[in-house]
């Protein structure tokens, strides 16, 4: 891969289906008040009803606003869905492919890919989550599963489009369970993701790609995870609801900001 690329880590708090609107506004206010060191990007992804008031709270703060999902069409008879066209212009980021949507709601790799490609037709940055179940890890198919998900999501993208994509590696068995991949396990998969993307797009584009880790990241394990050479911050679930813990995780990402080395 091309070397000397400075990647700015991204720590994104996925609030999932938590907080009322007033609670979300107060949580956003607490995130804005955190001592956020330079060298790291921070985002929060509240539930859809919160986006407008939370966005108002974040305005001018440097904290980005993200949505937790979008649909794969811009408009139409899709009751209950939210289009990327409706998010564009006041959201910075949208998340697609989270394992809870894949495994609880039955989203397919093909649907995730359609969402990502549609979102990229708008001025949005897209986080796409990939990861394996415990059975798949035990079967030794982790890298195959992640590669298949990446092919469906990123196939056909050029380097310019990839600049607006973040990949989040989230082992399904570690999400909300308190069980975390070891730094070595996380690095093995994130390194493989970068190599696979190099084959899909280019070495240079892959070297610049932000790859997050997600799955029971805490104040205690964040530094060790983020110190790995192919991990650039995290997609944070439960810990993002606790501002003091989230602040420690943000600081850990800033302290271990990665620089790609010459190959």
Structure explained in plain terms:
Mean pLDDT is 94; it is low at 259-263. It is built from twelve helices and eight strands. The chain has one domain: TIM Barrel (Alpha-Beta Barrel), CATH 3.20.20. The protein has 263 residues and is α/β, with parallel strands linked by helices. It has helices spanning 21-33, 51-58, 84-87, 99-104, 109-119, 134-138, 142-154, 159-162, 183-200, 203-208, 222-226, 243-255; strands at residues 10-14, 41-45, 64-67, 93-96, 125-130, 165-169, 210-213, 233-236. Strands 7-6-5-4-3-2-1-8 form an eight-stranded parallel β-sheet.
Brief write-up:
The chain has 263 residues and is an alpha/beta fold. It has helices at residues 21-33, 51-58, 84-87, 99-104, 109-119, 134-138, 142-154, 159-162, 183-200, 203-208, 222-226, 243-255, and strands at residues 10-14, 41-45, 64-67, 93-96, 125-130, 165-169, 210-213, 233-236.
SSE string: EHEHEHEHHEHHHEHHEHEH
Could you estimate the helical fraction of the residues in percent?
Answer: 40-55%
**CATH first level:** Alpha Beta
CATH superfamily: Aldolase class I
Radius of gyration: 17 Å
Q: Spatial order of the strands in the main sheet?
A: 7-6-5-4-3-2-1-8
The proportion of strand residues reads: 5-15%
